[in-house]
UniProtKB/TrEMBL annotation:
Domain (DUF1330) ranges: 35-111
Name recorded for this polypeptide: Uncharacterized conserved protein, DUF1330 family
Origin: domain of life: Bacteria
InterPro entries associated with the record: Dimeric_a/b-barrel (IPR011008), DUF1330 (IPR010753)
Length: 121
């Protein structure tokens, strides 16, 4: 199962750009002990890469009581991050410094959903 966006995914993200900010929904399932590696990744993200590309964590939390979901649809963590635009997100994931750190995320996860959202008008 893929946990990181690929080149084709980023091209589609940019092609579907309606302009303006984008909020990225992250649903995360950790490997055994992966929460520690993910927290290290998140520290690098917050201290270096989000400021560099204008991103901001709007919410980060641990999954809790599942009220409505099919078996296997619960998540260990939910993170919501706002970027000034889709191009900023794409530039960040292409940054060679980021690519060195993203291995922590990859190693930490067994499954993930990373979905761009657009605001309702």
């Amino acid at each position: 199962m893929a946990v990181d966006p690929r080149g084709a995914d980023l091209k589609r993200l940019l092609a579907e750009d309606s302009g303006g900010p984008v909020v990225m929904l992250n649903l995360l399932r950790f490997a055994e002990g992966g929460d520690e590696a993910y927290r290290e990744y998140a520290r690098h993200l917050s201290e270096t890469f989000l400021p560099r590309y204008g991103g901001e964590v709007l919410y980060a939390g641990t999954g809790s009581t599942v009220l409505v979901a099919e078996e296997g649809q619960s998540w260990d963590a939910v993170i919501v991050v706002r970027y000034p635009d889709r191009a900023a997100f794409s530039r960040m994931v292409a940054d060679p410094d980021y690519q060195e750190v993203t291995r922590l995320r990859t190693e930490a996860l067994t499954e993930a959903v990373l979905q761009a959202t657009t605001p309702w008008t």
